[in-house]
């Protein structure tokens, strides 16, 4: 643990000073995550200079450094007046325009390093020794320009250091026993490293406070005028207190102690029957900090101790602990967990009103309704996370329930700005800004996991779902029943999942109207205007709309909401997002192309909870004349318009059929539901007793039985609804089979008929599905490695892998596969891994390949638009229009097999950057690749690249001869659109004559943009550049026949075959692409091949269990 202790007169190292010590480093921040952003919106470290003298000082030629090079970064001509402050960003961005924010070319280490300010003559003006400064704190002089130094919890960039400062920050107290689960009690000892410091602690969950040593009393109520005419309840009181530590604290099982906060009403009930009349399980919470006069108090340490005979096996689920000063939740005036004053005030002026839209403390929202507390999380008895967080009440109408949903906010001002743990399993992201402990919403009194079950069952579909982990919850050491840990959709979610910057997200909610959660609704409103004024029957209009919304996402989302019979949907609980882009970018990563995508949210009023398995939700979603919840006409417009287009309508019908045949199969849904149910079975009785919302375990079983019944009955009714809506006369049964399951499988419309598809068995063939009469289906044969598709038999025949078929009756098909003639797989020929071996801050002219297959020298060279490049340090054009290393790793196109199988995390990857300007005096920057392809064919060039404000497009051409001639012949495109995020670029030269097996192959990459002559310090960044190809082999391997003689070969007309033992043989003749061109028996001893095109063919000869494969040349 680091100790922040500062001796005032020894904190700075003073070299010989110039300017009479008038120019000083006045304030420093070495770890900034929330104080202030630079002009790019980045939280960068900074240094503040202050002129304490009476004369202006021109900083031109002054040096600033964090190493032995006193002129590591040099100031431009910039004057700082007497009493003026100058803020310098230490970001590594190297910006020297004196009329704009300036940035040094280095960053400051948070671990402490010396910072030196040097005059142009070489004299040290000011120097600060390495001081460890906590995140978002500053270290500076008080008063400005003086000799005394303080740590400031509230920094003042560019302003006077007038906030309260401290000479030291105390270390947190040490606990003799770690937080966790124990079989028996013990004595807990607290220790402070400061001998004259005092330890303060609490046992009631509150934060230790030196002003609360006498305790704090607050008021609450357990009766409210729930119904008109009910009397106003009386005030009751509770208190919490801070203690001074003077000896060991006894830790024991407290479950036999009286309930405290559990005895406080959390609703507006006149008779809150859910308040337990029995003793709850309890833990012991100890929260402590160290205090001392003149010093900044230590952070608060929180520990939870669960003492019981069961020890770590006390609970079957993870345990979530919330600890906070209880008045923040339960105080009548300020508490956010109670009905409180807001409800009484509302009832006073609404004497006879119902409760649907009442006010209450627990309905407060926004930052004013956020309180600080501690969140700890235990899994298998072990603490996984323990940090202070912001806490708000989550939910709309469900916030009135007794056990409330809590929204947790990780904030830097509380210590950590992320909840860094994989709550939902190792395969899921493990870094969260916000997370929810949810009371299961409208399912609060029924199954308690319906929404989670629905999300889990469709998480493989093309929309976002929220992960789930049920937990046992304790608040201030008292058992609080179960809450479901869930992801929360917000701008941080989309940044985490899709890498969308916070200021580039448009995120909307439809809740009676369009509500803007992030960004704006301009693009959405324009889309709705278009849909209101245009039919989508015409493909031209439809093709435009699908550049505005993702039709695959749209279809899956609507199918799911319709299938589950969500009755609180269409004009409510609808959320959608897009990355804000000027136009649709087809090449962008998923989620970043600028199109709207819908996300699944709040499905508690579904699956028969409020409706029936026979309810026609499809008709509800397509109602054109609705006027009220849930389907006013504005809420059904987009879906109705999309269904006007035949292409989308057929896709929607077939996709619905595909999912009814797989993901929505009753047996699959029941299996998922039963599995999730069994996880919480051991805890449901205690939870039911705690809150009484679920009357009994038997009632809970009855509710879950209703869910299974819905899953069983829904598909048949759903098919009837589809037939009614689209005027389809009936269904057809499809039976699909394959000749050999080890050789390939069938794709039916959108689903692969194999075990990787949810709802399809591991051994699925023959497979049966139900589809719709006269609705065209698409059937495709997909071969496994080493095999190729041969042909179809059954009700579909032919040799095309993909067939569009319009069924008018039950049908059956078989896909046949055969062994393929194996060609070597493409392999990496050359690869450039840009890592720490490339010198930093150095203009480069060429970089050798890091993975050469052959011994030939292969390199990428760089041509700058500046004559005389590269320049030496100190030259005015040094590091301009240059190729340099950059710290910008990406997994895109990383090839671990050419880097000793190192993972991406182990690779030490950096990047290269091409910097502005890109054109000057009719010259331009270019990357030149000198690449021999000797021994390889089917050449592909692949790399990752991103624009960082410098160019719009990459322009690629190539040369085939020793005499360089740049051409684009045969390329599908030579211009490639850049975005501000890494994307994969693949340039396929496999069909271009002359590229394969060419020792003189070269390639060039240039840049296009609006103005390529500007120099704003921007760049284009490249990574993971590789050349791939297929080795050229002299022969195609063949199995030489032992039982057959085949001649002549090469052959023109008749091919004669003789068997050694006169076996009864049959033959199949295939083209190299796997298509069957002829088959039959060998009764005549010959095969007519006169009709074949010239080339190579594969002959399969079979006699009983004997088979020979022979290569045939047709001349």
Short structural summary:
Pfam families: CotH, Fn3_assoc, LTD, Por_Secre_tail. With 1115 residues, the chain is of the alpha+beta class.
Could you say which overall geometry the principal axes of the C-alpha atoms support?
Answer: globular
Q: What's the story with the biggest beta sheet?
A: 7 strands, mixed, barrel
Task: State the helicity in percent bands.
Answer: 10-25%
> Within the largest sheet, what's the order of strands?
25-26-27-28-29-31-30
Are there runs of 5+ residues with pLDDT below 50, and where?
1-20, 1034-1042
Average pLDDT metric = 92
Count of spatially separate domains = 6
The first-to-last residue Cα distance is: 81 Å
InterPro entries: Fn3_assoc_repeat, Lamin_tail_dom, Lamin_tail_dom_sf, Secre_tail, Spore_coat_CotH_CotH2/3/7
Keywords: Signal
Pfam family, one: Fn3_assoc
Protein name: T9SS type A sorting domain-containing protein
Question: Can you give a write-up of this model?
Answer:
With 1115 residues, the protein is of the alpha+beta class. It folds into 6 domains: 1-169, Immunoglobulin-like, CATH 2.60.40; 174-448 and 468-483, no CATH class; 519-664, no CATH class; 731-819, Immunoglobulin-like, CATH 2.60.40; 827-1031, Galactose-binding domain-like (Jelly Rolls, Sandwich); 1044-1114, Immunoglobulin-like, CATH 2.60.40. Helices cover 13% and strands 31% of the residues. The strands form 17 sheets. Strands 25-26-27-28-29-31-30 form a 7-stranded mixed β-barrel. Strands 44, 46, 48, 49, 53, 56 and 58 form a 7-stranded antiparallel beta sheet that branches. Strands 45-47-52-57-54-55 form a 6-stranded antiparallel beta sheet, with no helix packed on it. A hairpin with a 7-residue loop joins strand 11 and strand 12 (149-152). Helix 7 (551-563) crosses helix 10 (646-660) and helix 11 packs antiparallel against helix 12 (697-726). The protein is globular and about 110 Å long. The N and C termini lie far apart (81 Å). 39% of the residues are buried. The model is unreliable at 1-20 and 1034-1042 (pLDDT under 50).
